[in-house]
Request: fold
Amino acid sequence: MKILLTGASGQLGTELIPRLQKLGEVMPVDLDCAACISKRCRPLDMTDGGALETVLNRFQPDLVVNAGAFTAVDLAEKAPRTAFAVNAEAPGRMARWVSRNDAFLMHYSTDYIFDGYKHEPYLETDLPEPLNVYGESKLAGERAIEASGCRHVIIRTSWVYSGHGNNFVLSMLALGRRGLELNVVNDQVGCPTWARNLADVSMQLVKKGLARRKPLQGLVHYCDADRMSWHDFARLVFDSAIKQGLLETMPRLNSVKSSQYPQIANRPAWSVLDTALAQSHGIVPARLKTSLEQCLKELPRE
Ligand SMILES: NC(=O)c1ccc[n+]([C@@H]2O[C@H](COP(=O)([O-])OP(=O)(O)OC[C@H]3O[C@@H](n4cnc5c(N)ncnc54)[C@H](OP(=O)(O)O)[C@@H]3O)[C@@H](O)[C@H]2O)c1
Reply:
């Protein structure tokens, strides 16, 4: 099997590379390959439609895994055209190619397509109502894929962290090490998800998508098992980091409301995804504490 992996140097892409290599021949691509763990990574700007089509036509993948995305939520408000080009137009182009060539597309979307007013875990069938440009662009990506009629699975996930890249865990750790007093919001609740767990689940779901009999198709929610606020997540990060000798003392951590911590993009107050559908396919959501501890354990010591 030939597999095109976009976003190969991102949080998820990094974890997917070794797993996809067990399935077939992987061609990793990204905007910038410098941080990629694969020497085979080739630069590709997904917003360049001609370049994307050329890669697809030359490589002729059986499976396209689109882990590439414009994930800077605040920046997306200032650069909506780029956000839509990466998160909506490029997946749409991939999906149409996949449809024409009878391949399969694995794609990722976000809890931020919901407005967060539900206060119960969001189902795949709940009505999306994004509050920000990032969410709008990701929703447009989902719809472009669905409209193409291609064989696909879209995993909606939330609050992704890993041992590299830009994420909340590494930011908290860096700020904590500088001894800064931190204000972290307590009124946004979600399920932090380790990129490695998401990669493992992707492998389980892609195999079900590729199955000959009753293949899985469409939207599936996956996030790790435990829900909490960003504030409580920060405390857990610091507790685990101190336990592992990554941090000497607990930073001063203040619990604040979103209104006291203005950000450029609005964010949903409630970002919890219901994973019952994934669980009906044999997926067991991983526990946060053990995942976070393992992630921190693998960080290089200073
Ligand atoms: N991170 C989260 O909290 C989160 C939450 C919910 C859903 N998701 C979804 O999960 C998926 C994986 O996210 P992630 O956390 O692994 O994201 P990530 O670490 O930001 O990785 C995305 C990759 O895509 C690349 N990219 C950006 N613009 C591109 C372009 N024009 N052409 C080619 N590549 C481009 C990025 O390169 P640069 O770094 O150079 O820009 C980066 O390497 C995405 O679909 C995301 O929307 C993420």
Notes: The two ends are 41 Å apart (CA to CA).
